[in-house]
Amino acid sequence: MKKRRIAILGSTGSIGRQALDVIRQHRDLFEVELLTANNSSRLLVEQAIEFEANNAVICNEDRYKEVSDALRPYFTKVFAGMQSVCDLVSGDGIDMVLTSMVGFSGLRSTVAAVTAGKAIALANKETLVAAGETVMSLAQRHNAPILPVDSEHSAIFQCLRSSPGATIEKIHLTASGGPFRTWTKEEIASATAAQALHHPKWSMGNKITIDSATMMNKGLEIIEARWLFDVDPDRINVVVHPQSVIHSMVEFADGAVMAQLGHPDMREPIQYALGYPERLTLDSRRLDFAGLGAMTFEAPDETRFPALALAREALKKGGNMPCIMNAANEVAVDAFLHGRIGFYGITDLVSRCMAAVDYVSRPDLDCIYLTDREAAAKAREILPEIA
Asked: What average pLDDT does this structure show over 21-44?
């Protein structure tokens, strides 16, 4: 495998840190060309020094001097702001871009990388939720391969490689069920942010962990899967699998079901994307099938977790509706984390924004950016009523 020059957008977040651990194990195969962070200036500096990054971007321009001064003795060039990220990912010195920024903020830089024809290791599901049709069309036009990093979509991608060209009968997205899987609706209604952040299986950032607790994360993954694999929405099923050993499954036209298994470790799908099509060694925990015990499955309860129904409604409506849903959810999750609304206030706010923001059936990228701003503004306007 030829050495690959990697850009990690969001290197100080959970996915970014785990990606650097993968690279740490394979310094002969990967070179860090670009690291970016929003606010975590100190960690960005430490990462740039350890991995001898050629470029670093701190998106919060107020922290540029701090990062620049710290990296002056080294060879890393320092920039500030999102425009710098977009400019750098388009450069000739990058082979692959890992997009692990959280939320809608990852769209602009991903579009820049796709337009430049870069291979994309996609860990920012909101990119395809908000603008899936547009982004996939751009990727095809510019010959930019998009490799999924989400554990579920990586599993599907790996299963599909086993039967190229086969007809997909159904995709089965597995879900852990989150921390409230066995709670009653009344108990869930009074859940605190601290309880919602205590995920039973995965270690993730705050936003994704709350999305997992509401099961909005699975709703976002339904939309992402629709665009990544060009599958009709009614062929995408969600099944709760609390052990999180099977990461997802594909059912083919002959009834055969292929599954991808492994311990909950995001480094595995990250490494698979970075090294594709090769499989590299990883110092991960191996499955002990005799010690696994039972693996169980159950249908999701959309009464206790209404986010799934909202996501399916947004996907069915199409246009800019998934973008409206996503923007409202970002505001709602932030409000919940700061104690401004209760747990079910999240989906209440999302539902009200989906009904209130102007719908556009065929949005272009400019419309998507405008929709995100308008939906977020509407969410903040409605928020006091929810609170």
From this structure: 97
Residue 292 has pLDDT above 90, yes or no: no
Pairing of strands 257-261, 246-252: antiparallel
Candidates 117, 114, 83, 120; CA nearest to 98 is 120
What pLDDT sits at residue 293? 86
Q: Which of 124, 333, 90, 363 is nearest to 224 (CA)?
A: 124
Residue list for the binding site:
12-15, 124-126, 150-152, 176, 199, 205, 212, 217-218, 221
Write down the pTM of the prediction: 0.94
Which residues fall in the annotated binding site for Mn(2+)? 150, 152, 221
What's the CA gap between 126 and 100, in Å, rounded?
10
Binding-site residue positions for NADPH: 12-15, 124, 126, 205
pLDDT category, 165, cuts 50, 70, 90? confident
Round to whole Å and give the CA distance between 64 and 56: 10
Position 203 pLDDT exceeds 80: no
Closest listed residue to residue 99, CA positions, set 120, 119, 83, 80: 120
The binding site for 1-deoxy-D-xylulose 5-phosphate comprises: 125, 151-152, 176, 199, 212, 217-218, 221
In whole angstroms, give the CA distance from residue 208 to residue 129: 14
Query: What span, in angstroms and rounded, lies between the C-alpha atoms of 387 and 384?
Result: 5
Q: 277 in helix, strand or coil?
A: coil
How much is the average pLDDT of 349-362?
A: 98
The mean per-residue pLDDT over the stretch 277-290 comes to 92
343 closest CA partner among 222, 184, 221, 105: 184
